[in-house]
User: Fold DDE Tnp4 domain-containing protein from Parnassius mnemosyne.
Amino acid sequence: MLLSVADFIGVSKASASRIVHHVSRAIADLYPQYVKILSNTQNAFREIAGFPRILGAIDCTHVPIQSPDSNIGEEFRNRKGIFSMNVQGVCNADLLFMNVVARWPGSAHDATIFNNSTPTMQCEEGLFGNRWLIGDSAYPCTSYLLTPLLNPTSVAENRYNEAHIKTRNTIERCFGVWKRRFPILSLKIRVAMQTTQAIIIATSVLHNTCRLNNIRDVDPEVAMPQESGDITYAEGIGQKNHSVRQQLINNYFSV
Assistant:
């Protein structure tokens, strides 16, 4: 990447590296202005599949990187043996990022990232009232994060799971649009770690500005490397609020 930039603007690779870092950092500094939790998300989410009171959809995605030149490099090797950053994203129904965390190595579990992130702290402090995040089974089921049932047994539970899948799919679509617009996020980032993190955050800012200004998404037919759907389940991690999920199923999906 740096050689291409250097050749394009006629500077040395070292100069290109500094330019990429400074520009990425400058854009990333706009994160608080363009990537933030929005209050008016419930209606749009409910229109998808009837799921009420949803604040945002959450998931993680791996961004390939070069092997870190440090004694902790192996921490960045993910389950597939690829060096990566495990990046958390929360989005609304319009595929706008509301939170992005880009500081964890590829070996980190999705639930670990979530438990140490700002959205968890904000939810635990009750800042979003009775609204929920929605995530897959890599996350614990809590009073503020709803996960699917692994073994649904009733009509209502199956309805819940079907609505959950359709609603949670927004974050998968958001990641897809983001990575198609910025192919470097799928192909491999080959710069220093600080610049890598700045690039990830900067592209999330640019993604939101494109969506807000109705800039056409990259052609969805463009082939991009796809992640496996394998999930490391978190059923044993803090599954302490099944009652909240069951009450939701009884109130909204049993009719």
User: Anything to note?
Assistant: Residues 221-226, 235-239 have pLDDT under 50 and may be disordered.
